[in-house]
Write a sequence for this structure.
């Protein structure tokens, strides 16, 4: 073999093309559904669900919009995939030695923690009903201990909706809201408390006395206290067969009358 042939044989084939074909590096950068979902989650977490568009997402990923449709059918399906991906982080494993009340509380705390770790997802869940594998698994994890409470089937379903909606609604008022940031700042919180104590007691007797308890950095306590109250109500309804549906039905009506309309069920696994 001549020196010229040897040089040609050892040369990079890409160097012989003006527009080289895709090589190993390009194949390694091939887009996957996981990448699309992960980047969409980043967009929602940073700018909110309304900021998510296929065109903007494609630009972030360095591809043409058409490339996304090889992995997802539409923006709506993409939102469902993102929601289900987040719900996968909720650990549904529970100790069977725990009472049904404790199992429900543990799940609610875990769901809240995951939603607050992913800003924008709680708001998205208010308008989505993904019915994906992880959404269904979460619904099953909640329903199993609630069935053990011994309530009628319809009341068990209402109890699930009550606990789930409360947890979702609490996560919606996340730590980025103005009020949450205000009470977390020690100096601002002290100013607030001084302001409430200075209110005219003849006009605002309750606020002057209780204001510093209400505007407090007690987010975890608020969630736990309200959740405990809901569970206590379910227990009371369970122990009074003649009127055990009263609490649940009243709570369900109250929740429905205060919830804003949505374009879909906010509860996983329900029509």
């Amino acid at each position: 073999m001549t020196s010229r042939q040897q040089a040609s044989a050892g040369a990079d084939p890409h160097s012989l093309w003006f527009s080289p074909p895709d090589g190993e590096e390009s194949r390694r950068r091939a887009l996957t559904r996981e990448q699309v979902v992960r980047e969409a989650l980043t967009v929602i977490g940073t700018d909110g669900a309304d900021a998510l568009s296929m065109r903007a997402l494609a630009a972030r990923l360095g591809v043409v919009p058409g490339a996304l449709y090889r992995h997802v059918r539409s923006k709506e399906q993409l939102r469902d995939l993102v929601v289900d991906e987040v719900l996968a982080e909720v650990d549904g494993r529970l100790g069977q030695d725990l009472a049904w009340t404790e199992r429900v509380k543990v799940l609610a705390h875990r769901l809240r923690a995951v939603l607050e770790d992913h800003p924008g997802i709680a708001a998205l869940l208010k308008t989505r009903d993904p019915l994906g594998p992880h959404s269904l698994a979460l619904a099953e994890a909640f329903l199993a201990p609630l069935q053990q409470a011994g309530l009628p089937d319809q009341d068990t379903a209402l109890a699930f909706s009550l606990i789930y909606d409360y947890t979702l609604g609490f996560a919606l008022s996340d730590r980025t809201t103005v009020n949450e940031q205000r009470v977390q700042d020690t100096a601002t919180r002290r100013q607030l408390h001084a302001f409430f104590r200075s209110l005219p007691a003849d006009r605002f007797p309750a606020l002057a006395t209780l204001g510093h308890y209400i505007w407090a950095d007690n987010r975890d306590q608020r969630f736990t206290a309200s959740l405990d109250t809901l569970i206590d109500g379910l227990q009371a309804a369970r122990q009074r067969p003649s009127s055990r549906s009263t609490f649940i039905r009243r709570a369900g009506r109250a929740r429905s009358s205060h919830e804003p309309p949505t374009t879909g069920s906010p509860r996983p696994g329900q029509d």
